[in-house]
Amino acid sequence: QVQLAESGGGLVQPGGSLRLSCAASGFTISSFGMSWYRQAPGKERELVAGISNTGGTINYADSVKDRFTILRDNAKNMLYLQMSSLKPEDTAVYYCMTAGYWGQGTQVTVSS
């Protein structure tokens, strides 16, 4: 059974950092590109960052460039999103996605 499980969300002050993790099970991620999306209240889900199966190609939404870093560890079947210089507008539920499968999401709240 294919599963994606995000973790690492929480409440953080503006300017702070968080590291999100996505654990994949039931399949091997090494053949697939993977992405992080987010959805803020009242807004559509948006692509935050994507990474190719080998990690050789990476792209970011303009709103997170130079602040977020997407990483993958194919040996551990894991995807990560290192977030720094967080802003209140980064508040959202963050989801990992690959091969048409979605995790359940993890809440990130940036507030003082």
Description:
The chain has 112 residues and is an all-beta fold. It is built from no helices and eleven strands. It has strands spanning 3-7, 10-12, 18-25, 34-39, 46-51, 58-60, 68-73, 78-83, 92-98, 101-102, 106-110. Strands 2, 4, 5, 6, 9, 10 and 11 form a seven-stranded mixed β-sheet that branches. A hairpin with a 2-residue loop joins strand 9 and strand 10 (101-102). The chain is globular. The model has no long low-confidence stretch (mean pLDDT 97).
What can be said about this structure in brief?
Helix content is 0%, strand content 51%.
Helix share of residues? Answer: under 10%
Number of helices: 0
* Mean pLDDT rating: 97
Distance from N terminus to C terminus (CA atoms, Å) equals: 40 Å
Shape: globular
Report the biggest beta sheet as strand number plus sense, adding barrel if it closes.
Answer: 7 strands, mixed
What fraction of the residues are assigned to beta strands by DSSP? Answer: over 45%
Radius of gyration: 13 Å
Oligomer: single chain
List low-confidence stretches. Answer: none
Task: Tell me the series of helices and strands, N- to C-terminal.
Answer: EEEEEEEEEEE
Number of DSSP strands? 11
Structural class estimated from helices and strands: mainly beta
Features:
112 residues, mainly beta, globular
List the helices and strands and how they pair.
Layout: E1 3-7, E2 10-12, E3 18-25, E4 34-39, E5 46-51, E6 58-60, E7 68-73, E8 78-83, E9 92-98, E10 101-102, E11 106-110
